[in-house]
Amino acid sequence: MAKNFKDLSEREILALAISLEEEDGRIYEEFAEGLREHYPETAKMLEEMQAEESEHRASLIGLYRSRFGEHIPLIRRQDVKGFVSRPPVWLIGPIGPAAVRRSIESMESETRRFYELALQRTTDASTRKLLGDLAEAEVKHTATAESIGRARLTPEVRTSESEASRRMFVLQFVQPGLAGLMDGSVSTLAPLFAAAFATKTTHDAFVVGLAASVGAGISMAFAEGLSDDGSLTGRGRPVIRGSVTGIMTTAGGIGHTLPFLISDFHTATAVAVFVVAVELAVISWVRQHYMDTPLLRAAMQVVLGGVLVFIAGILIGNS
Description:
Distance between the termini: 43 Å
CATH superfamily of the largest domain: Ferritin, core subunit, four-helix bundle
Radius of gyration: 24 Å
Helix content: over 70%
Oligomer: single chain
Order of helices and strands: HHHHHHHHHHH
Shape: elongated
Strand content: under 5%
CATH architecture of the largest domain: Up-down Bundle
Structural class: mainly alpha
Largest sheet: none
Number of strands: 0
């Protein structure tokens, strides 16, 4: 079970800080290696940032030894609630400066929040000074990250991606909303169309679809709201994030449920299928526009899942 950040001792906070600096340094190294061939100047910048992370780690280890001895407990970011999993962008090639910049901004923002909160949990003067210095260093890294690849981006992309408000909007609303819309649009297909083809009555199909949509919305709202408290990630309040996810999940299911208010079964089914196609197209566009997923890949992933669930519902309903 992951521990709450508020339950960490000063010893564990320092151990976690050491782990974070080591992980961040290795990620910078991977980014530099991936950009070295085509973007040597950017790779050099990343190597300098990696060297700074190594210095930070050495300072933390020195402080830890002076206070708690030689043994450093193994405590990682995944062992503490409030952190989110970082996608291994460096494993997906070819990688460009824009993707690296976005990843670094997220990393440094989260690490800076950690140091700022850690300052509130420590009383030792030397520890507080070091944590404060490290928090300031993360701010400088974030500023450096914002300049990576800037000269190689078009003015339109550079302007849109440099806006902090857009990043926060994506993090706090688009991501949870998209997750809910995808779940609601896809997961409710099977029970809705299974009921429709099993009963051949639009009223029964509507009742099943409505129940599935509302149930999925409640489930996703709690799942997202309880995933983390947003204190370290900047993902916003759990209540708001969970509400966005729940509402969009319900909306995703309600969209293709409403056509079954039409009394004619064949007409209702045809309209519902059309609505499903529109929903999947919207999801693919949102993933391409906000999540930088190639449109073809996004469409294939979403459509394939939707079609499989749709076919499963029809086969079960006709069995």
